[in-house]
Amino acid sequence: MEIIEKVKIAVLDREEEIEARIDTGAEITMFNEEILIRIGAAHMDNQAVDFGGQSKVVMPRYAIGHMKIRNCITPGLFVLGG
């Protein structure tokens, strides 16, 4: 299921609110790489991602402080920049 709503992502003391597509059944979290770089997310490494057996793509992985959706905070995430 895909839902579009406001999401806050944070790195250290810098927080940014963005409009995001939320896939409640997803196994990974992805954000636009330009946003991650703008808020100062640390590039950790690269990760191969399998998109439903159709294709594998290597994507950059970033560390963020937390993600907040509907007042629920998920701390210390690794997210992919796409």
Would you write up a description of this structure?
The chain has 82 residues and is mainly beta. The model has no long low-confidence stretch (mean pLDDT 85). Strands 1, 2, 3, 4, 5 and 6 form a 6-stranded mixed β-sheet that branches. The chain is globular and about 35 Å long. 7% of the residues lie in helices and 67% in strands. It has one helix at residues 33-38, and strands at residues 2-11, 14-23, 30-31, 42-50, 56-69, 72-81. The longest helix is centred in the middle third of the chain and has 6 residues, at 33-38. A hairpin with a 2-residue loop joins strand 1 and strand 2 (14-23).
Detail the topology: elements first, then pairings.
Elements lengths: L1 E10 L2 E10 L6 E2 L1 H6 L3 E9 L5 E14 L2 E10 L1
- Terminal Cα span: 20 Å
User: Which structural class best describes the helix and strand composition?
Assistant: mainly beta
SS elements, strand count: 6
Largest sheet: 6 strands, mixed
Helix content: under 10%
Contiguous runs where pLDDT drops below 50 for at least 5 residues = none
Provide the succession of SSEs.
Answer: EEEHEEE
Radius of gyration, taken over Cα atoms and rounded to an integer in Å: 13 Å
Query: What is the 3D shape?
Result: globular
Q: What portion of residues belong to β-strands?
A: over 45%
Mean pLDDT over all positions: 85
What is the overall number of helices?
A: 1
